[in-house]
Amino acid sequence: MDFLRPASWEEALAAKAEHPAAVPIAGGTDVMVEINFDHRRPEYLLDLNRVGDLDEWEVGEESVRLGASVPYSTIMDRLRAELPGLALASHTVASPQIRNRGGVGGNLGTASPAGDAHPALLAAGAEVEVESVRGSRLIPIDAFYTGVKRNALAADELIRAVHIKKADGPQQFSKVGTRNAMVIAVCAFGLALHPSSRTVRTGIGSAAPTPVRAKAAEEFLNAALEEGGFWDNGKIITPSVAKQFADLCAAACNPIDDVRGTASYRRHAVGVMARRTLTWTWESYRGTAATTEGVA
Amino acid sequence: MRVSFTVNGRPQEADDVWEGESLLYVLRERLGLPGSKNACEQGECGSCTVRLDGVPVCSCLVAAGQVEGRDVVTVEGLADYAKQRAEHGGCAFGAGAGASGSGGTSLDEARGWAAEGHDSQTGEGTELAPIQQAFIDAGAVQCGFCTPGLLVAADEMLERNPNPTDADIREALSGNLCRCTGYEKIMDAVRLAAARQGEAV
Asked: How much of chain B is helix, strand and coil, in % rounded to 5?
């Protein structure tokens, strides 16, 4: 094994181009587990800790450019107003020690369907900034996840940042697990209201081979909200609409039975989380017109 | 490869480090600092918690090569670290005594406890960090395996948040598993340390 220590982003890209099999390591919270247990013995480890700009973020007009290594603890502390859904999701990641090291770039690189950031990114709307010596490109989050632990990265590419839409309405995140800390999601759900475009977006985690949006459910809800004039009159969403939305979210799942839960439990739980997060966000929208506060 | 970094304020060098080795292994097996415990090796238990550039992390998940040139504090250096912090006023100790809420042991009750930290088994003659003394006084140690990680995590929380609520303590220690105590005595110890810290100002 060789340990590559690029001092800059350019050096990192050059190293990745020269050694496409090199495994990038930043927080190490996935990679080191695999190495400690001898599940993985990469030929090269590519340490990104020295590449300082990966730890930085910029709040722009429309979106936040979040460096790939910005730790979850920083997202919780500093970006709660701009990215409430992701901040809530970050708070459910493992433990303080892990949140101090891990970041969204690692979640995306690993592309596990259980990664906590994914539902929040899908619901908010995001693009992944990836780069190689050949150039840079933005991958829409909907096109990023290509299979179980697979993503749209080419072998010579590294994740530099994620561009996440700033919240224009309430966002929520919900996760099912056996306890509050140190738990991998049995399933998870993210929901974001976008009053400026009068749309609702969703993200489902751990209930399909990849993180997915419940697109049919979104379309149904968008139409129902428009038809009933809900965005303007701020009425309570009727129970039948909420139920239909929940059922369509459950139907968007394609889960498996495993040690953490059965497929049918996951479908059921996603439906429950969909209804609850819709209620929470809608109450928040009704109550304060456009607050972006999350409910912990 | 060779890795040079600072441990508990002293420059250290480790040679013949395997590239996939963890910081925990380097500390325990190469630098003779076995205070940080090796239990789960997957970041679940927090027994290996150290501070990397001041931030609590699981040392089993930090690749040795990643600490090159950086600053590590382990439980062995905790007493000195706390002492220096107190002397230089490096952080905001303030905001009064914090006997918080509905805890199991009252502060007055806990004040009656005292244990000597000056024998060879506990402190090797050195003065303990306030959090270490509080763990002894509150009986928060049984088998002791989780203790080093808990001490490092709790000390860091008290540095940031001198007057924690029970919820703050629980969250700060949520990455540290103890299988003996049921956590109640640990909660007592952290409340005690917080209260003493408040009194000292």
From this structure: 40, 10, 50
